[in-house]
Amino acid sequence: MTAPIELIGLTKAYGRRRGIVDVNVEVREGEVFGFLGPNGAGKTTTIRCLAGIVRPTAGRALVFGRDAWADAVAVHRRMASVGSDPGYLGELTAAELFRHLSRLRVMAPDAWRPIAERIELDPSVQLRKLSRGNRQKVAVVDAFMGEEPLLVMDEPSSGLDPLMQREFLGLVAEARAAGRTIFLSSHNLTEVERACDRVGIVREGRLREVTSVATLLASHARSVNLLLDAPAPAGTFDLPNVQVLAATDREVHLMAQGDVNPLLGRIASLRVVDVSITTPDIEDIFLSHYDARISGAEDPPAPASDGAADGPPPDGGGVAR
Amino acid sequence: MTRSLLRLELRRSRALVGWLTAMLLLYGATMAAFYPSMRENAAMMQQILEIWPKEMLAAFGMEGGFGLTDPGGYFAIYVGEFFPVVGAIGAIFLATRTTAVDVDRGWAAISLATPLSRTRQMLVAIVVQVIAMGILAIGTVGGFLLVGPVVGARFEAVPFALAGLDTWVYGCAIAAVATLVGALTLSRGLTGGLVAGILIAMYLVSVIVAIEPSLDWMRYLTSFAWFDTAAVIDEGRVEAGGPVVFGLVAGFAWLGSLLVWRRRDLLA
Fold this sequence. Notes:
The complex is a heterodimer. Chain A is built from ten helices and 14 strands. Chain A is an alpha/beta fold. Chain A starts with a strand and ends in a 27-residue tail after the last helix. Chain B is built from twelve helices and no strands.
């Protein structure tokens, strides 16, 4: 079966400025794929390539096997895409905009209404009079009002209040349940953690890592703080992948990586007054990718780390599936 | 799909085309109202023209040998010379809306995120320009035809309609060139500057040619040589040259715009 999205060596340069470099990734049918990165990392450029707005300098962006640039009309029959802070025409009301877009997307003229009601968007107001948050609601309706099997969204929930972000996550979950594939870029790491099956982390135009959210979270260290009734016997924490960071008579601070069951077994043999195990959130993991840049280190492009990679091609890029 | 887009684009053009047409109508009507007075003082006007330096006459487009007191000459001098300015304003605004403004603001990306093809998008923009230029052309001759009977001037409907047709095709040529430049540059400022610059340069050439007969061959490089409404109105001489040249320019420029737009990287 043809993958909803396949980026093959996708490269886009804006003159001498870097856009994206050799991005390789395959998004599977029915998954929610998050695209993470700071401003200027190349997320929007990737989405513009997918939307057929800009022409790749090298490589290809395929949507259901069709070239997103050369075959844009056919691609858009199966893909809805909404950019970051879309430039809707201010003179239109939201209802007029949705009716117009419904005709262009060849769908029922009132298909937008249930979504608009659900996220409490007043469709009778001119778009130029809407606040940033309400304009973002328009983008959410635009994204979800159709039935295209692929949804591509660039920072779709930025500007939404927490209640609306929850609604947005609900819409994403329903779309996934309906078998639709979603590709979204985001700064909102909590949202990505909750919504996505896999994430790709992009930095300085290169895709650094593609992995499942669960694998990403599991593969990173956990912080364990123990308050003991009595000092632990010597060698209690001598375990692979466990590191004692600090210890006093009764307090121990550990870092544990990977499987924590051996450590839990050792802890069970002690008289524990209090224990806390902190799982790093995706923000910590994301930031750890940038710590290297801050400290001046440069890590090489990483192949897929969820165990399903084809392995890096000779040029160092990787196709992540 | 096409109907919806066309309706939206026409709606977006209403204010611009409406105001420009109202201005042309008002200006044409005002000038038509002065025509009887000009005609009554024909002898005096002729004397004034005879003592004016020929360079001055050329600069104001009065070198053509037709009389200011004839309807065609009067229309050509006072309104026909004015149309390229107003037509260019409308053409530049309309042509660069699709190719520059909508790209900058992100509306082009929204429209193209649907199964709308770039070809269809550009064709709709062209149709809107054709309609808009038609309305502006009606406004250009309409003031004369409306006010003529009121002030007792005899402005024949058919010759003026033919002059309107000439004006329409001329406007389309300006719009088409602006569309092509817009598709190439994706910039309203650059397009406006280039199109206005070309028109001004052509006007200067037409003035120089009128002063210096040895450069007469350059006349046909300017649009003003082909835009001869005086001959149409006064002599009933329908010369196909002008409309054919403007039609060819419009056709090739729009075709070029379509080809460029289909493959244009929209780097907004």
